[in-house]
User: Which sequence fits this backbone?
């Protein structure tokens, strides 16, 4: 494991105290710590084994990659502040300035045990943030180049056998339940979900601890969940049924958006793993039914009368059949008591949600094609996920298409809202609550659109500093990646910035800067 000859300063930050930082002045770096993933224990394994330490906060992480090894010279902020001894003295929870460390002996499972390993293995578990800003920048640049290359590759249109299975599941389960369309979740041929009850309870306690530190967010999130209950998107369930093997508990958390201040939504983490499995790893993604973004934007510029809108709560308008709902359970605390709930609708975050939602809307368009023909074309060709984006030759035609599309989507429980048009007469018959007349500049699939002038604003010269000394690698990367140019209209400008960025990366890689 070769180390760099020069020492660097590394900053460590506790996960639960992001405002505190601890610097290691003499640290040596290496491109990779050659430590086998087999030597990294999953957090859920430790939680299940050492339940006496379940109250200790350990953040969930995406992977178990070890990013730093701490030596004795870090004792100033790794010395024990508090120690909690486990049963039979097999484990110890040690609190340090960087957070809690769990150490002790872990009993190997029969699958991982072999002749070269004793039945009990010593372990230590600790998580903190490491300052890897430079590494992050290099990774972002690599992802950017890779994405640029992917956009030049031909599309693969052949469905795999698993994609065909997902479509077959939709065909066999989709039906109208009187209010909306109902579907079955597209499961993989072999379902490997295990009962993750204790893991989900532990994550709920971590969420409660975080929300208690932000009372305003806590109240808004409670209201969000109550709204879902009132709309029957979520329902309380008894602990006994259905059988345990068909249950999966989803961790969840609140989310906020900068462009929607004060509004708090909820996200169920379908990617959260327990013993190597997650809800997403058991669901089929399905074929990509999303309309081509470039084609949707080109059609939007085709005619003089432009119309924008979006579907309100797209996923939550699609019902999930009863036998699949038990895989969409979650916990919430009410009056200091843990209660169990489950989603009755398609959740945001499931790997199949995009495919399922678009399939349902295409099915709705097909079912209503003979009765409402204009809406069928609008739904199939002028939607990009939940965004309705269309241009038409005349105001009268735009009004008719909007009316028919609203009628059609009403059949699957959906409603169009936030209407915008460059022709005020188009919106004359739209309810004021369904119009968005607060902005002159709107975003259309990543592009800024001036409603009054009917122009796209690609970028502003104010983004470019006049002082040449301010053009760091990060600044150049930020500039070039912030310009969304799907048609390549700005390539004569952006290609020069990309060349300079690439040259600076090459010079650094060769040790010349």
Assistant:
């Amino acid at each position: 494991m070769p180390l760099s000859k020069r020492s660097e300063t590394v900053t460590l930050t506790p996960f639960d105290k992001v405002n505190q930082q601890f610097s290691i002045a003499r640290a040596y770096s290496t491109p990779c710590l050659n430590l086998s993933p087999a030597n990294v224990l999953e957090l859920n394994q430790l939680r299940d084994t050492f339940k006496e330490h379940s109250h200790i906060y350990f953040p969930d992480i995406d992977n178990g990659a070890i990013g730093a090894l701490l030596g004795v010279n870090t004792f100033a902020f790794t010395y024990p502040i508090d120690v909690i001894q486990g049963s039979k003295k097999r484990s110890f929870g040690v609190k340090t300035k960087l957070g809690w460390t769990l150490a002790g002996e872990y009993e190997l499972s029969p699958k991982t045990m072999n002749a070269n390993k004793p039945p009990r293995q010593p372990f230590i578990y600790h998580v903190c943030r490491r300052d890897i800003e430079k590494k992050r920048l290099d990774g972002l640049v690599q992802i950017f180049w890779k994405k640029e290359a992917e956009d030049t590759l031909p599309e693969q249109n052949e469905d795999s056998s698993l994609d065909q299975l997902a479509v077959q599941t939709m065909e066999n389960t989709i039906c109208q339940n009187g209010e909306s369309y109902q579907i079955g979740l597209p499961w993989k041929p072999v379902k490997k979900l295990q009962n993750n009850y204790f893991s989900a309870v532990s994550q709920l306690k971590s969420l409660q601890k975080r929300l208690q530190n932000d009372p305003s967010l806590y109240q808004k999130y409670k209201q969000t969940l109550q709204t879902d209950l009132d709309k029957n998107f979520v329902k309380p369930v008894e602990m006994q049924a259905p059988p345990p093997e068909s249950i999966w508990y989803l961790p969840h958390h609140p989310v906020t958006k900068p462009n929607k201040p004060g509004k708090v939504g909820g996200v169920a983490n379908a990617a959260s793993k327990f013993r190597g499995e997650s809800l997403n790893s058991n669901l089929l993604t399905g074929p990509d039914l999303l309309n081509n973004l470039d084609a949707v934007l080109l059609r939007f510029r085709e005619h003089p009368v432009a119309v924008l809108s979006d579907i309100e709560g797209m996923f939550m308008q699609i019902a999930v059949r009863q036998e699949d709902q038990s895989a969409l359970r979650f916990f919430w605390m009410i009056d200091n008591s843990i209660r169990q709930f489950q989603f009755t609708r398609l959740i945001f975050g499931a790997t199949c949600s995009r495919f399922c939602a678009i399939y349902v809307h295409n099915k709705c368009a097909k079912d209503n094609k003979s009765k409402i023909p204009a809406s069928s074309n609008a739904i199939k060709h002028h939607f990009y996920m939940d965004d309705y984006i269309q241009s038409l030759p005349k105001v009268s035609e735009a009004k008719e298409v909007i009316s028919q599309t609203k009628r059609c989507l009403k059949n699957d429980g959906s409603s169009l809202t936030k209407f915008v048009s460059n022709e005020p007469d188009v919106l004359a018959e739209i309810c004021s609550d369904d119009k968005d007349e607060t902005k002159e500049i709107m975003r259309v699939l990543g592009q800024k659109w001036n409603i009054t002038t009917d122009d796209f604003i690609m970028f502003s010269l104010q983004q470019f500093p006049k002082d040449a000394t301010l053009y760091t690698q990060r600044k150049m990367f930020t500039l070039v990646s912030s310009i969304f140019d799907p048609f390549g209209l700005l390539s004569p400008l952006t290609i020069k910035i990309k060349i300079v960025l690439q040259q600076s990366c090459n010079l650094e890689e060769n040790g010349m800067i």
In short: DSSP finds 13 helices and 22 strands in the chain. Residues 491-509 form the longest helix (19 residues). The longest strand covers residues 99-107. The CA atoms of residues 362 and 380 lie 6 Å apart.
